[in-house]
Amino acid sequence: MVRHLRALIVGSGPAGLTGAIAIAEALGDGKDILIVDEGIEPGGQLPKQTHKFFGHEGFYASVRGFEIGNLLVKKVKSLRVEILQQTTVTGIYEDVITLYDRANNIVHECTSDYILIATGATEKFLTFKNNTLPGVYGAGAVQTLMNQYKVLPGQSFLIVGAGNIGLIVAYQLVQAGAVVKAIVEASSRIGGYAVHANKIRRLGIPILLKHTILEAVGDNKVQGAVVAEVDERFRPIEGTEKEFIVDSICLAVGLQPNIELVAQTGAKIVYIPELGGFIPWRDENMRTSVRNVFVAGDLSGIEEATTAMIEGYIAGYNIAQDLTGTSQEEKISKMKEELSEFRKGPFSKKVREGLAKLNIRFPEGGYREELQNDSGPKGKLRAVIECPQPIPCNPCETSCPTGAINVGGNINGIPHIDYEKCIGCGICVTKCPGLAIFVIQEKSDHSIVGIPYELLPIPSKGDKVDLLDRNGKYVSDGEVDHVMLNNKGKTHVVFLKVPKGLEESIRSFRYAKKSEAFICRCEELTREEIERTIEMGITDYEELRRVLRIGMGPCGGKTCRSLALQILAEKTGRSISDIELGAYRPPTIPTPFEAIVKFNDGIESSSGGVKNE
Amino acid sequence: MSDVKKYDVCIIGGGITGTALGYFLCKLGKTSVAIFEKSYLSSGSTGRCAGGIRQQWSTRPNVKLAMRSVKLFETFAEDVGMDIEYKQGGYLVLSYSEQEAEQFEKNVKMQREEGLNVEILTPRQVSERYPYINTEGIVMATFCQTDGHANPHKAVIGYAQAIRRMGGHIYTHTEVKGVDILNGKVVGIDTSAGYFGCDAVVNATGPWSSEVSNLVGVNLPTESYRHQILVTEPLENFFPMMAISFSENFYMRQTLHGQFILGQGDKDEKPGINYNVTYRFEKELASKMVKIFPFLKNIRIIRHWSGMYNMSPDAQPIIGQSKEIKGYYYAVGYSGHGFMVAPAVGEALAMTIVFGRSLHTDISYLDLTRFEGTEIEREKNVV
Fold first, then answer.
1. Residue A444 burial (CB < 10 Å; 0-12/13-18/19+)?
2. What CATH number is given to the structural domain containing A582?
């Protein structure tokens, strides 16, 4: 049976979902509107995105990607639009469109008055030696495994590509507990947002510009990677090779539009490098050269999620307008204005240039470019914003309860703070998707720095930490003053006590590496834990042993006893000879029950033992 | 004389009894309290015990006392402010004798009357529930889920820290050398840290109870016997309960940290303080336990030590106030189960000292005077 649809939407990413919402809203219901999607859950890349999105709050800025997906899917479902998952559109034939339901292994046929193709993009691959070794992943695969299937694909990573995707994946890997050894980027500048890059640098991850990967090392799986510096024509410079010991290599070297299906409709394909290469020709309403075929999102030009959503709406309202014969012009022009606002900044330069080749013009400028050079009155608890690039994002402005922040001009402007109005409440810190806002205050004998924090475990008051600068380099010892928990948005603010004068340089912290300071190796106890327990008033070796289990592991305290006694002596000011040594108990090495039982019948209990007490 | 330091109550002994009592006294507002410990906190029996917390007793008052204690253990972390690794994993009491099994049925009837939820299990049920136990020779078993275990050291430290926070004092490495009595009333104690005036002295000295009582001139019918115990390397947790048998003479539990703690009694022990250990104990216990718990075979023993049971004539504690010397209290003779009843005893004795009687649990049956009569009801459920 051939099913007839009013609208078929291919792809349930942000563009497909908003397209479906626009059509169904204008038509009044979702009858005969079908979304077909290959994945196991709707949302396209959204379910894999755990970071907060940029933009403005009307398009879910400050909301995490997977939550945006949930919101859009909820909306789609409330409009009763049907979504078919694990189904691939295998062909757009002259007579029918075929939908291959992979879960049930059956091909369905349909026809549709309109088609919105929102098939997104595919990752580019990179050629280097051994690039088929297991452990070489695309960034999308890493995100799918880690964030969708909850499997961490490796423990230590080299990331290739410092665009937004490479930077975001690096951050997510650290959140998931992996180690990112470095990010290499062949060009001489970071392609992604500076705020993303700063987040990575604060974690101490080096970003090596003008570097590329030469080779994956390993026999059956990745065990390392060789990278080298490149010249201005991207050729490796001999003698600059470096090797990283990693078990995974993650490639984030760009995207190319998925034009396969749209090409089958007969729509005109054009080559525009600024938009990602071959793309479908389309007009400002997202209509292709085939009258009833529309496109939206990355397929129509590589960009980002907010503009994909807006393009989805524009395509959807146009389809609805055609289907109903009723004008949707008001909604369409509102969306076009949004799009125009977003594309005024420097990061949209390539998109503007690419679209100009299609005769679609977008204006630029009209936003503030100057950085604020004053960090406010000393001594006052206040926010400082470190958002140095004009990017389309303004939740700091819209969330500030006292109206102290404005981004200046349009959404691309650089935010400034009116320190007369700022009350240091920290709400902007929890909202900023770039984690680029901090709180500082100079006090009489120390300073306070509040840092946005999204890692586990959540620190607690009094925790001793290493204070780090903007490059993740150790500056000084410090302590957690208090933590402002944000259980809804999950960006907590950790307030650190820092030495006076360091409030302008401390922007990160880490727990002192545990492995460096084990005193008791069996029970993995650090000097710090022992000192803290002594400070609680536990000042006998035997008491310490009982509270911490120091010396109670299989080795029986062979190495830690004397160390613990030394620490006790240091902390209590007593001489080591005045401290009770504690008991030595048999057996001196762990002895299996079996070994004792074996000889039980053979040897009689000896009466010649030694009494020691 | 004006610079003599004075406390309302001086407690001798920094084990679980002394610290629990100190804690409840402070809670009742009597913060002029000092504990004198000749060594370090929990250095006596508490720090050497297995940490079991059981309500399945053979006499009714003991069941009541233990049930109150469990109530207090349940809220320990919240009330006292320390995580003591408390787990209500149950006590599985295994009987290997027909005669004992008959007694168990009577016990369970009485325990249920007291509101304790105790199951009776056949050997087959034991084997279904705990496939890693070899049930050969088992006649029957009883199980009470709300029984459990905790870390005794941490309980003492928890109480001690709370006492310090509330204003009480703790003197460790301080030995009590004499008790000052005037006109039949306690007025002070003499210690290695000097003389302290006081209105009341509490003997909570476990193994040393009768020697310390001699300082007051009161005879306590207690004797201390060595019990040995050992611990293995840690395994992942799979053994939630304390398994115990009076007829087969053993007990074993897994700590939350993963180690197995196990031991047995020795009827040939002679009275007297002795902290040595014997290899005979390891051999006897190992051969018995490997049969009953075959998984132990490849597990290694890492530490073996001993502690004292301060035994009373009927294997029940002796708690009360001296009739002869006013202001002299004792809480001794726990016969191997002082840790598990300590919160309830501490609470009841603190009330007795402050109000003249206990408002929660009647402990009058534990007074020394019970030995004046001819009949003694002996607690049978002791390893």
1. exposed
2. 1.10.10.1100
- Give the C-alpha separation, A542 to A550, whole Å: 9
Q: Can you give the pLDDT at residue A603?
A: 47
Neighbouring C-beta atoms of residue A401, cutoff 10 Å: 10
Here the CATH number for the domain that contains residue A329 is 3.50.50.60
Q: What is the pLDDT of residue A107?
A: 87
Q: pTM (2 decimals)?
A: 0.59
Contacts of A553 in chain B (CB under 8 A): 302
**Model confidence over B198-222: pLDDT tens digits?**
999 999 999 999 999 999 999 999 9
Q: Does B169 touch chain A (CB under 8 A)?
A: no
Instruction: Tell me the residues of chain A between 485 and 544 that have a Cβ less than 8 Å away from chain B.
Output: 536-538, 540, 542-543
Dihedral, CA atoms, A473, A193, A371, A208, nearest 10 degrees? Answer: 40
Is residue A610 included in any domain, yes or no? no
Mean pLDDT across chain B, nearest whole number? 94
Do A206 and A229 sit in the same domain of this protein?
A: yes
CB neighbours of residue A150 within 10 Å: 8
Question: CB-based contact (8 Å) between A552 and chain B?
Answer: yes
C-alpha A386/C-alpha A414 separation (Å) is 9
Cα-Cα-Cα-Cα torsion A449, A454, A456, A462, nearest 10 degrees, comes to: 20
Residues A66, A445 contacting (CB under 8 angstroms): no
Amino acid identity, position B36: F
pLDDT band at B4 (very low <50, low <70, confident <90, very high): confident
Nearest CA to A117 out of A270, A302, A304, A292 is that of A292
Same domain, A136 and A236: yes
Q: Which helix (H) or strand (E) holds A77?
A: helix A65-78
Residues of B with Cβ-Cβ distance to A591 under 8 angstroms: 300-301
**How far apart are the C-alpha atoms of A424 and A438, rounded to whole Å?**
10
CB–CB of B283 and A600 under 8 A? yes
- Most B CBs within 10 A among A523, A540, A552, A593, hence the mutation to make, goes to A593
Sign of CA dihedral B125, B130, B132, B138: negative
Q: Could you give the number of structural domains in chain B? A: 2
Using an 8 Å Cβ cutoff, are B206 and B17 in contact?
yes
Same-domain pairing of B297 and B320: no
Where do we find the tokens 């022990």? Answer: B269
Residue B161: which of A537, A542, A580 has the nearest Cβ?
A537
Residue B361 backbone dihedrals phi, psi, to 5 degrees: -115, 135
Contacts of A583 in chain B (CB under 8 A): 305
Separation between Cα atoms, residue B228 and residue B50, nearest integer Å: 10
Q: Same structural domain for residues A392 and A505?
A: yes
* Chain-chain contact of A585 with B300 (C-beta, under 8 angstroms): no
Q: Is B110 helix (H, G, I), strand (E, B) or coil?
A: helix
HSE of B229, CA atoms in CB hemisphere, 13 A: 24
Enclosing H/E stretch for A180: strand A179-185
Alpha-carbon gap, residue A533 to A523, rounded angstroms: 15
What are B326-359's pLDDT values in tens digits?
999 999 999 999 999 999 999 999 999 999 999 8
Question: Domain for residue A502, yes or no?
Answer: yes
How many CA atoms does the CB half-sphere of A393 hold within 13 Å? 27
Return the structure tokens found at A468: 């780090």
* Cα separation, A273 vs A277, whole angstroms: 4
| CA distances for B177 relative to A307, A357, A578, B113, B195, angstroms | 85, 100, 22, 46, 10
ipTM of predicted complex: 0.86
- Convert the pLDDT of each residue in A449-492 to its tens digit: 999 999 988 999 999 999 999 999 999 999 999 999 998 889 99
What are the φ and ψ backbone dihedral angles of A301, each rounded to 5 degrees?
145, 130
